[in-house]
Design goal:
mainly beta; 314 residues; globular
């Protein structure tokens, strides 16, 4: 079962150079719709486009971690210390935005973690939003899960994750809603398994969870709806788990995509694990069906809209 998320979650604004910071300020001011082709160069500024109210959509058409538009759109690649997993091994090297013929629109966010079984030879990767205002509503992402490494020997206890989470672990209203895929298990369990976890407190851990024992190699649409005092997790349109009572969001959260190692079970030989994200969608305050999510996403792709954010800032 899932363990506490973090021992440290210091914000690492390493991707925010002065020009990028100006982009963020421009993004907060609003502006006309903006879309970029898959191979277009990143613009020097990127105002928040107009569109359906209370909507956030991104299909990750960026040139790399240093693309100013990545920061302007509220994303950063984690480089700070702490956990989970192998502490202080977070790096930008594993984050990329390559072409992918299996992805809708042909482009993905790739999260590539690697290890040789030593801390010095380990790199974990996480891409997270910052300063977002995502509370209740529908969270959805099309995610590619791996059952085996892209290269090297199998057997690592890797965790491929998608989750909204409070900006601070010490918050009095701590909130976290997890998808965690463990192809080889971990924490004493035998995989493959998909854990869905709703948190009330990070320390001491207070959460409820559900485990799906199933091999899930390939693309999946992961959804969380948090409305009317309950949270429902669904995979490819099938409900997996519902939490309620105190196990619901109590404050606004950021979005994280992360690929990390629980431990280092064996040394010798480099191995690389891939997780990919095709797109992310959020609708504030509403429960949206998977069919309607996909219809909306298809509309964005059809219009050439790579990013939109009309979620209120307050």
């Amino acid at each position: 079962m899932s363990q506490p998320r973090r021992t440290s979650r210091r914000r690492a604004w390493t991707v925010l150079t002065l020009p990028a910071l100006l982009c963020v300020l421009a993004a907060c001011s609003g502006g006309p719709a903006s879309g970029r082709g898959a191979d277009a160069a990143a613009p020097s500024s990127s105002p928040t486009p107009s569109g359906p109210p209370g909507t956030l959509f991104d299909d990750f058409h960026y040139s790399g971690p240093a693309d100013p538009s990545l920061a302007a759109h509220g994303w950063q690649v984690r480089t700070d210390g702490g956990g989970p997993g192998i502490k202080d091994t977070w790096a930008t090297a594993g984050a990329g935005f390559p072409s992918d013929t299996t992805a809708q629109g042909g482009r993905v966010l790739q999260l590539q973690s690697s290890t040789d079984g030593t801390k010095q030879g380990t790199q974990q990767v996480e891409v997270q939003s910052t300063g977002t205002s995502l509370f209740t509503g529908t969270f959805a992402a099309r995610v590619y899960l791996s059952n085996k490494p892209a290269s090297g020997r199998n057997g690592d206890h890797v965790v491929e994750t998608f989750f909204p989470i409070s900006p601070s672990d010490s918050s009095a209203n701590y909130s976290e809603l997890d998808y965690e895929y463990l192809p080889n298990g971990g924490w004493g369990s035998v995989g493959p398994q998909l854990d869905t976890v709703s948190w009330y407190k990070a320390d001491p851990p207070d959460r409820v969870s559900h485990t799906l024992k199933q091999r899930l190699e390939g693309w999946h649409i992961m959804m969380v709806t948090a409305v009317n005092g309950k949270v429902t997790y669904s995979l490819d349109g099938k409900d997996l788990f519902t939490s309620s009572g105190k196990y619901v969001p109590r404050e606004k959260m950021d979005i994280h995509f992360s690929n990390w190692f629980i431990d280092l079970p064996f040394a010798g030989g480099q191995r690389t694990w891939d997780m990919k994200v095709n797109w992310f969608y959020y609708k504030a305050g509403e429960a949206v069906s998977q069919a309607d999510v996909q219809k909306t996403v298809d509309g964005f792709y059809g219009a050439g809209t790579n990013y939109i954010n009309t979620v209120p800032k307050s």
